[in-house]
UniProtKB/TrEMBL annotation:
GO terms for MF: ATP binding; DNA binding; endonuclease activity; hydrolase activity
Ranges for domain Helicase/UvrB N-terminal: 1-168
GO cellular component labels: cytosol
SUPFAM superfamilies with a match to the protein in the record: P-loop containing nucleoside triphosphate hydrolases
Gene3D superfamilies the record matches: P-loop containing nucleotide triphosphate hydrolases (3.40.50.300)
Organism of provenance: Helicobacter pylori NQ4053
Protein name per the record: Putative type III restriction endonuclease
UniProt superkingdom: Bacteria
Key words of the record: Endonuclease, Hydrolase, Nuclease
Length: 521
């Protein structure tokens, strides 16, 4: 088992293992995964030498012999002196092995074959290992895990290499892989090593979808123009609009295009006027300073028009759409707005996703899990050349800027949603389990200036003084220490009035940090 975070090079490791296994005498490989979209994406990465994400060298030389990658439909098509890969969904593989078809692979075919099974998103293969199963998992138990086990046992030399970013957090599963883990590189480690974007939550009190539409477009355009201003090339921030159902996704796309067509300068003026978010204020200041404001409506309408959109729910366009979805970073790919439901939660190769918009007012537990998975996928860092940061340096692939630096906007993934405190709380918990943190809003520290009454009361009241000290742990050390120093400096004066106990005033609230207050007495 290779437990590796999304974006940490899992598929590249898989490609390297294919070459090593071939070197050790294995020629035939069966790659399987639960999703058709992941299957097609991986097939391109392994076999399409023209693709920008092709994982092998143009010429493959192993043991002083040239070889090539072949995609096969049957083991009987296996080529000598070639790496033969059969690609299938796990559902298709089960059907293949249990329902006889002409010219298809069968279990019988496996007995005389020395095979390497490559299981991607392998956490789906653990339903049999789990002790508690729901109805769908019980069905999978009879199907997936047992079928893979049966196929593996057909030849004693067969190998099973499993890959996953999210191994189920259950004792039975952990025990299963206890001595089988070859590599572990979690999303938490990936993030701590600065290979992830900073993740922000932007909540909107206005429940109209148009507000989310505009917020995401402003965010994306600001990041693009900011990059251009600093001579950073090929920086195209993409937006994902996520809906609950396919029909909702199609309707939301139509709604978005109608909104964009009717967008007016007054809409933008109102948006910036009523927004209290520092990020949007930074965007507005940048647009004004660089003289983009007069043309902002036209810019938004042009940058996010229908021709740059993809709807992943259109089955007729899915194959072509997947090619575009997995090459969004390419210079010649104009697509930057994606409408989807759940197709992209797993297996989507994208680095330049900078804004995710949840187009739903209410959410449940399943939504938080799915959205956390999607955020984890979009959190991967998008490397760009700036000053001395070039691809030859490891820093090129890591976050570079302090949060106070305006260019940190190019290193943030924004999650836009209608305000729902319960959902955001649950989402933070899910992201924390994945090893990621969610920044809800920038916090501003405000120095405490005690009133005259408070100075006197604090100096003479040991009980409440101790309470205040206990509360201090909730605030920044700097502010708390400064506060204590100020109060101590006033002790001499305050002690003179020890016997003058003042009653609290009606406005006896002391604010240390925006949104955090405590009663002075």
């Amino acid at each position: 088992m290779f437990e590796m975070a999304t974006g940490s090079g899992k598929t590249l490791v898989m490609a390297g293992l294919i070459l090593e296994c071939y070197k050790q005498g294995y020629q035939n490989f069966i790659f399987f995964v639960n999703s058709t979209s992941i299957l097609e994406k991986t097939k391109l990465n392994f076999t399409d030498s023209v693709s920008s994400k092709y994982l092998f060298s143009e010429n493959i030389n192993i043991n002083d012999e040239n070889t090539e990658i072949k995609s096969i439909n049957n083991l009987n098509e296996s080529h000598n002196n070639a790496i033969n890969i059969y690609f299938s969904t796990i559902q298709g593989l089960f059907s293949l092995f249990t329902r006889a078809k002409e010219n298809a692979i069968t279990i019988e075919d496996l007995k005389d074959q020395k095979l390497v099974f490559l299981a991607d998103e392998a956490h789906h293969l653990n339903t049999e290992t789990k002790k508690k199963l729901n109805d769908s998992e019980a069905s999978e138990k009879r199907n997936w895990e047992s079928m893979v086990k049966l196929a593996l046992e057909q030849n004693k030399d067969n190998l099973l290499l499993e890959f996953s970013a999210t191994i189920p957090n259950e004792k039975s599963v952990e025990e299963k892989y206890k001595n089988l883990k070859v590599a572990t590189y979690t999303l938490k480690e990936f993030s701590e090593d600065k290979f992830c974007k900073n993740i922000y939550s932007l909540s909107y009190e206005n429940k109209e979808l148009e507000t989310c539409f505009l917020g995401a477009c402003v965010s994306s355009l600001y990041k693009e123009l900011l990059a251009q201003h600093h001579n950073i090339e090929n920086f195209k921030p993409c937006i994902l609009f996520k809906s609950e159902r396919i029909e909702d996704s199609k309707a939301n796309q139509e709604h978005f295009n109608a909104f964009l067509e009717n967008l007016s300068p007054l809409d933008l003026e109102n948006f910036f006027h009523y927004s209290r978010n520092a990020f949007f204020k930074d965007a507005k200041n940048f647009f004004d300073k660089q003289n983009h404001t007069p043309n902002l409506v036209a810019l938004l309408q042009n940058k996010f028009k229908e021709s740059v959109q993809i709807n992943t729910n259109n089955e007729k366009e899915l194959e072509k759409g997947m090619l575009l979805l997995n090459s969004l970073e390419d210079r010649d790919n104009p697509k930057r707005v994606i409408f989807s439901v759940d197709k992209l939660n797993e297996g989507w190769d994208v680095l330049n996703l900078f804004d995710i918009v949840r187009l739903k007012n209410k959410a449940n537990q399943k939504d938080t899990i799915k959205d956390a998975q999607l955020i984890g996928r979009g959190a991967r860092y998008y490397p760009f050349s700036y000053n001395d940061f070039k691809p030859s340096r490891i820093e090129f692939y890591q976050r570079k800027f302090d949060l106070s630096n305006p260019l940190s906007a190019l290193e943030r993934l924004d999650y836009h949603a209608i305000y729902d405190s319960e959902f955001i709380t649950k989402l933070k918990e899910e992201l924390r389990e994945l090893g990621l943190g969610l920044i809800e809003k920038e916090k501003t520290t405000i120095p405490l200036t005690p009133t005259k009454r408070f100075k006197c009361y604090y100096a003479s009241n040991t009980k409440d003084k101790n309470k205040l000290k206990e509360l201090g742990s909730a605030f920044t050390k700097k502010v708390f220490n400064e506060t204590i120093q100020r109060v101590r400096a006033l002790n001499d004066e305050a002690n003179k009035q020890q016997n003058k106990r003042h009653a609290p005033s009606n406005n006896g609230w002391v604010t240390i940090e925006k949104g955090v207050s405590f009663k002075a007495w």
